[in-house]
Task: structure prediction
Amino acid sequence: MKIIEFLQKIDLKIKLASLAILLGLIAFIISDPFDNLYAKINTKELAVMVQKEVDHVNVDELADWIIKGKSDYRLIDLRSEKEFNEYNIPGSENILITNLLDGQISRNEKIILYSDGGIHSAQAWFLLKAKDFKNVYILRGGLEEWRDKILFPKLASNATEIEKAKFEIASAISRYFGGTPQLMIGEQPTSVAIQSATPQVPKIQAPVGSSSSGAKKKKREGC
Amino acid sequence: MNAPFFKFDMFSVDFSLVVAFIIGIGFGFALERGGFGNARILASQFYFTDMRVLKVMFSAIVTAMLGVFFFVAFGWLDLSLVYYTDTNLIPQIVGGLILGIGFVIGGYCPGTSCVSAATGRIDGVVYLLGVMAGIFVFGEIFPWISDFYYSTNMGRVFLPDYLGLSYGMVVFLVVLMAVGAFAAAEWGEKKMAAKKSGERK
Result:
């Protein structure tokens, strides 16, 4: 009873100030509100997603988006900076898997991950899904498939007419990205345009993406 | 200000205007009830006779700060979806000075002038016309000052990162600062009141 009487005597502003100081102290003890280390996952939901392969993007889809200039997604290259500088898909940004949750990408963005094959991006996909990122996609087959299908498409010597027609389109896309279409003679690939025996990954200089430290393309938002 | 729900596409641009309207009414109502629709009360801040503005502002800052901190800690709020402006140091200092000069001359800041005009005060309406004229002039000369406007960009800067302290530490320090400012304001008001009554005698 005495405590209640005592509390009633105190001015409201003193009470509020004490409450603020108390909450401030708790904040001081918590010290970091961001919980980036631990996550809870819904295993069933993720398993179903993996089973249905809903979160995949094919290389030809991606090539199509780049050519059409779509910009509603962010393409993340998970490889090392050195590999990124040697070659990267136009429009991509280099973020290492360890830096993925450092706040460079936000949960409402459409994110497409790629690495050499598919393993690294699949692992990164899991991390982001566990952290409740909604729109995360994996580039199916990764950079290897990009190289085989987009940069250096192949046409077998015994191809049908339909395959040849498709190859024409693939060749156009390949040249757009600075690649070389390959004609197969037996087991040996021969480039269609210029006779360069071994396919090399082209050095694309012009529209490569910024590295992670560079300026981010950002819409201006009102405040 | 863009809320996280907007960025998740939970409602459309049109509906966001409705939300802004409702929040705006709440904001205006709080300002009016705080007495901020009256230029005399606002100006008395500069004479240290009524520190209401400081108290209201610090109350708002501390409440919002503690709320955001604990919401983030509980996982209710995703801070990465809240919009922050970049820091452009020198242009923002200059802008702050211009706003401050306008405040001293007119007796209002932009928000309170709207409140004042809405309650039918003539000086508030005149101030609001001045704000419109200022916006127009700014828009017209923007091509010539845009280089300056975007200069000294420091990106998104947060005090904890800049000072190398933890977020909780900064929260605690700001709370202490606010409580200290409250106590100083109360003390100052009493001093000024004593001085005034002394003059009258």
The CA atoms of residues 92 and 161 of chain B lie 20 Å apart.
